[in-house]
Write a structure and sequence with these properties.
The structure is a single chain. This protein is an alpha+beta fold. It is built from seven helices and 20 strands. Strands 5, 6, 7, 8, 9, 10, 11, 12, 13, 14, 15, 16, 17 and 18 form a 14-stranded antiparallel beta sheet that branches. Strands 1-2 form a two-stranded antiparallel sheet. The two termini are about 30 Å apart.
Length: about 425
């Protein structure tokens, strides 16, 4: 049983800016699809759904009674028991779990093949998710998550994410693997709405991939589908992705509009995707399958130019290495939220609420101090360039210098993770 306080619903709470997620749309470009509402009680795969006990369900019902359809959930607080015990800054790393799928793509002379590799790498990241509907912690302003990826061939990749804005919430991130000639960057700007038995998260921001050895390609840009937390009032709780994402490269004139299909009332299936690859105005292939487990990308109108199949059941997730909490800075995600995480894992909602409130109170105090001094927050790793946050760092072209340069930029004099810290 969950141990919860006998106070008001607002006690065990978290601001609802995101619903379980994970990666990004071109700034300030949003997913222009209208949120799809499907209020039938969801069923779904038992491995993907969660059924709440009476007490937490009653807490959600009490909270819902204070909401109205279409209401912005930005400042609405949610019970702690719906939280996934990690920060959104770490959750974004799910999309780097298969970054090796684009290793070597820049050396491929076939532009269409490079585009397909980018598609596979991006779509492969969605299958990693918690059971049911769990949302990660909303990062506090200035929060940072850092990690390193160690690949079987001895190459490495480095990742850093920072919460660069609190109102509105913006999480900026940067990944580089100089050995493998890959850079991935972006920022995430979620907005949430209440739809009745569902909550929608409209995913704004941007996500871009570049190959260091293929500068003529420019950047591959990717938008995100919207997310729907289903069954929050009745039925089983599950996460659906809906609407469209656009994967494109303007320099190569390749694009693919991928439809993430939500299940209908009486027909359809969960987690289906479909999209047509275009080269200019001509059909160049398609993608079909499920984002949650297996999908196939065919090249050519009928796959005559080959196909690529991703299967999460047989794929290998690259684990990240994170410095021990005792060696992390005050604002690093795992150390910052450690007491909240421990309490959630122990199913002690009172302790989780107390620990989370202490973090939020400290954040408000820091904001008050900045206001009194006439100061504004300045991110450590990113800067605003036009409408997007970009790293305040330029990666050296020489790979032999680039690895140490990016590691030094991210970690500085603080402790770097050892391989035994892989989690």
């Amino acid at each position: 049983m969950l141990h919860s306080a006998k106070d008001k619903v607002s006690g065990h709470s978290q601001s609802a800016s995101t619903a379980s997620t994970s990666s990004p749309a071109s700034p300030p470009q949003a997913n222009n699809s209208q949120p799809a509402s499907n209020e039938k009680a969801p069923e779904g795969n038992p491995n993907d759904t969660e059924e709440l006990d009476d007490e937490p369900k009653n807490m959600l019902l009490a909270l819902a009674s204070q909401l109205r359809i279409g209401m912005d959930l930005q400042k609405v607080t949610l019970p702690v028991f719906v939280l996934e015990p990690r920060s959104m800054l770490e959750r974004i790393t799910d999309f780097l779990s298969h970054s090796d799928l684009v290793f070597g793509a820049g050396a491929n002379q076939d532009a269409e093949a490079r585009f397909v590799q980018v598609m596979e790498c991006y779509l492969a990241g969605w299958h990693i998710k918690p059971k049911g509907v769990k949302k990660p912690y909303n990062p506090i302003l200035g929060e940072v998550f850092r990690c390193r990826y160690d690949y079987p061939d001895g190459t490495v990749g480095y990742y850093v994410a920072e919460q660069v804005s609190h109102h509105p919430p913006i999480s900026a991130f940067y990944y580089a693997s100089p050995d493998n000639k890959v850079i991935i960057r972006g920022d995430l700007r979620p907005k949430s709405k209440f739809l009745g038995n569902s909550a929608a998260t409209i995913m704004e921001g941007f996500n871009k991939i570049a190959f260091m050895d293929r500068p003529e390609d420019g950047e591959y840009s990717i938008t995100m589908p919207n997310m729907y937390a289903r069954g929050i009032l009745f039925g089983k709780m599950l996460l659906e992705l809906g609407d469209d994402c656009i994967i494109k490269n303007d320099h190569l004139d390749y694009s693919c509009k991928v439809e993430f299909k939500t299940k209908g009332y009486f027909s359809g299936q969960y987690n289906a995707i479909h999209g047509k690859i275009k080269h200019g105005s001509k059909d160049a292939g398609e993608v079909n399958g499920k984002w949650s487990d297996r999908f196939t990308i065919k090249r050519g109108k009928h796959g005559e130019n080959g196909e690529v199949t991703f299967d999460s059941a047989t794929s290998k997730v690259t684990q990240k290495s994170v410095a021990a909490e005792s060696e992390q800075g005050e604002f690093e995600s795992r150390r910052l939220w450690s007491k909240v995480t421990a309490a959630i894992l122990a199913k002690d909602l009172d302790a989780a609420t107390t620990a989370k409130s202490a973090i939020e109170d400290h954040q408000r105090e820091l904001a008050h101090q900045r206001e009194q001094k006439g100061e504004t927050f300045v991110p450590k790793y990113f800067k605003l360039v036009g409408d997007e946050f970009q790293p305040n760092f330029v990666l050296p072209v020489d790979a032999s210098k680039a690895n140490e340069a990016v590691a030094e930029w991210i970690y500085g004099t603080s402790s770097r993770p050892s391989k035994k810290d892989s989690i």
